[in-house]
Design goal:
Blueprint: H1 2-37, E1 48-49, E2 60-63, E3 75-92, E4 100-107, E5 124-126, E6 139-156, E7 162-170, E8 174-176
Antiparallel strand pairs: 1-3, 2-3, 2-8, 3-4, 3-6, 5-6, 6-7
């Protein structure tokens, strides 16, 4: 009976060690996502500040988008508001690997020589954006286009990671702070 009790205690200790390891991995992943969601805040040449945005720079809003883990439901401070066309794209990373499908959002000013906006779904473009590793210079296909105000945000994810100058969230992906 003593051997069985010792075995149960060892098994419980191993399970607790595994749980701790899983939590550490989750925290690392959340930190990596937060780093990828942040940017320098530099905006593309020719991007026009919104004249009358629903959410003014410096105001607060709730994120209703889940582009990355920890975004949905986070409270954000508006760091920039710009009128443009936002595209959902599927792109083929310059680093190799599987295509990134339906990435939201790349704006018209982040395309190489795009011509007149909006571009039609199915149009092949080259990205001039560095939101994610392997994006800059990647070939992409336009999935959808939305003439909208896009916002650059500062926020803390729902898991506690600080994100600065996140590009981009559309107006329809924000809601007022209650």
């Amino acid at each position: 009976m003593e051997n069985q009790d010792a075995s149960i205690e060892e098994t419980e200790a191993e399970i607790n060690d595994i749980r701790t390891s899983i939590l550490e991995v989750q925290e690392t992943i959340q930190s990596i996502f937060a780093e990828q969601m942040s940017s320098t805040g530099v905006v593309p040449d020719g991007l026009q500040e919104a004249e009358d945005p629903t959410y003014e720079v410096g105001s607060q809003a709730i994120i209703k988008a889940d582009h990355m883990p920890g975004m949905y439901g986070a409270e954000a401070t508006i760091a920039g508001a710009f009128d443009t066309v936002a595209y959902s794209v599927t792109y083929y990373p310059t680093t190799g690997g599987d295509p990134v499908e339906n990435h939201k959002w790349v704006i018209h000013e982040e395309l190489e020589g795009p011509g007149e906006a909006p571009l039609e779904p199915g149009t092949e473009v080259t990205l001039d954006a560095d939101h994610m590793k392997g994006m800059d210079g990647a070939t992409a296909v336009i999935e959808s286009a939305e003439d909208t105000t896009v916002y650059m945000l500062d926020f803390t994810t729902t898991t506690g990671e600080k994100v600065e100058n996140h590009k981009w969230v559309t107006e329809s992906e924000l809601s007022p702070v209650e």
